[in-house]
Amino acid sequence: MERWNNRVALVTGASAGIGEATCKLLAKEGMKVVGCARRKEKIEALAKETGLKIWAYQCDVSKEDEVSKMFEWIEGHKDLGQVDVCVPNAGFSHPGSLMEGSVKEWKDMLDVNVVGLTQTTQLAIKSMLKHEVNDGSIVMVNSMSGHRVTMASKLKFYSATKFAVTALVEGFRQELRQMEPKNKIRVAQLCPGLVSTEFGAVSGAGSMFDNFKEPLTSEDMADTIKYIIQAPSHVQIHDIMVRPTAQLF
């Protein structure tokens, strides 16, 4: 991680879980970290508690203008100025099945999990290109649900949004490789299985986690994100799926 020392990372969904753990780890590794979430106060508390270089920014990634203003703020900040690493991590699910869900709930999930992620990634790449960050890194936090639909879960529309992310990773990779002049900006995704975060309770899938003795931890996933970022710039890590050892599905 030495080459990333004092460079800037942006992490969305940073107030809890994988986002929070990633902010903490990257800052410990010497990066300047912008953590964004609706609950800005939780990121501020993390920065105060650790004394690390973590800047809190309040942003709802489902709001186009808020995402745009966040990048303008980073660009204009005297200690930041650009984005070298971006971890679009924000995501959520409503608890209903396809037959129980509403159009509003589907649109809410699309706005965060797909559109917000895409806008964040696009603007991060534009920042990298503008500042000639030749080895920039994007790591989208996806899900095992971006690869399969499980009978045991009601979260079928959530899975559809995560399948979209899998397509977006490849789409951005292709566009980056076709750009002139050439660059070494890389895009990857991390697809966790069961992780012990607040996602289970919020999504209504808490029972899956309650009955599982050894889920992954947020710190496990932050370590994997670090692994992707620190790979040499000629190495394109595209997609990592991580399950708890005991997970069957």
Features:
single chain, 249 residues, alpha/beta, Rossmann fold, 8 helices, globular
Descriptive account of the structure:
By secondary structure, the protein is an alpha/beta fold. The chain has a single domain, classed as Rossmann fold (3-Layer(aba) Sandwich), CATH 3.40.50.720. It has eight helices and seven strands, in the order βαβαβαβαβαβαααβ. It has helices at 17-28, 40-50, 64-76, 103-130, 156-177, 199-203, 206-210, 218-230, and strands at 8-12, 32-37, 54-58, 85-87, 137-141, 186-192, 239-242. The chain has a seven-stranded parallel β-sheet with strand order 3-2-1-4-5-6-7, sandwiched between helices. β4, α4 and β5 form a beta-alpha-beta unit. α4 (103-130) runs parallel beside α5.
Task: Summarize this entry quickly.
This protein is 44% helix and 14% strand.
Report the CATH C-level class. Answer: Alpha Beta
Main sheet, how many strands, which sense, barrel?
7 strands, parallel
**Largest beta sheet: what is the strand line-up?**
3-2-1-4-5-6-7
- Number of distinct helices: 8
Number of strands: 7
The global form is globular
Uncertain residue ranges: none
